[in-house]
Amino acid sequence: MNRALILLRRRLVGSVFVLLIVVIGTFLLLELAPGDAVDAYIVSTGGDAGMIELLRHRWGLDQSELTRLANYLWALLHLDLGQSVTFSRPIRDVILERLPTTLILMGSATAFSFGLGSALGIYAGARPGSFRDRFLSVGSLALYAVPGFWLGLVLIVIFAVDLRWLPIGGIESIASTKTGLARATDIATHLVLPVSALGFIYLALYLRMMRAGMAEAWRQDFVLAARARGISRRRIVLTHVARNALLPLVTMLGLQSAQMLGGSVVIESVFAVPGLGRLAQEAVAARDTPLLLGIILVSAVLVILINLLVDIAYALLDPRVGASEAGA
Q1: Given phi > 0 = left and psi -120 to 50 = alpha, else beta, which region is 274?
Q2: Confidence (pLDDT) at 41
Q3: Residue 318 — very low, low, confident or very high, per pLDDT cuts 50/70/90?
Q4: Distances (CA, A) of 312 to 91, 179, 274
Q5: What domains can be seen in the chain, in order of their start residue?
Q6: What pLDDT sits at residue 95?
């Protein structure tokens, strides 16, 4: 536990600098993009030169880039993300409304892909070279090559349009008055398709990694020694081979968190899920730079927290990692 705490402290210190780089880099990149929130507003609603000047002054766009960056960093020190140009509300409130939906979608897709992918990887790697091993390897490769948005559209056509088994999109029924278990069931039903579209891609990745890890573990000396002692194959697979093959998957879980968060932007757009991904799309369309900065900052914090948990889990699973970090 002490090793995990030392590792956590080191990672938290480094995360502060990572967030600072993310904020400054994102701000500068958005400033290089043509147009701003006033241009997007005028295109959609119209206005004269006086209105343009008034809006630029109201939204602080008449100040220099360095001044706006300094003001933004100072506000962040006070946990103030600013005001959304699109919604005319505090950005913190807008993000907090959408964040739970994205967390549910990501958490469900991660649990689905990691759990089922690991199980299928163990099933395939238990007997390398068998028919089920080759079948699952080829199937996972084909699944990994499928674009997420295309898979989502196919799932909608089959299960929502043709069979009418599941809702087309959204997070729950419109104007629903359900509460308690009935509402949870309604939300779960709406999440089946987006979770499947987002999770199947990473399921294929975890399956292939687990299968490759088990194929490598079968050649290790400790596995050969266990087989020589007459331990059953089932026990060797679950206790020795699968456990050692699981460590790389834990690392990949943290690395894939950023990609899954990025993939949720596409999936939320396809299924009209009101999460951070769709909010980011709306912010880009309206050139709402403060809102987009807030979304990226919160996303970076999420990725850092997930990787912190993964690092701690890895240190607990493999004491050598925690010992090396503590001694560094």
Answers
A1: beta
A2: 66
A3: low
A4: 31, 37, 32
A5: 1-91 (no CATH), 98-317 (1.10.3720.10)
A6: 92
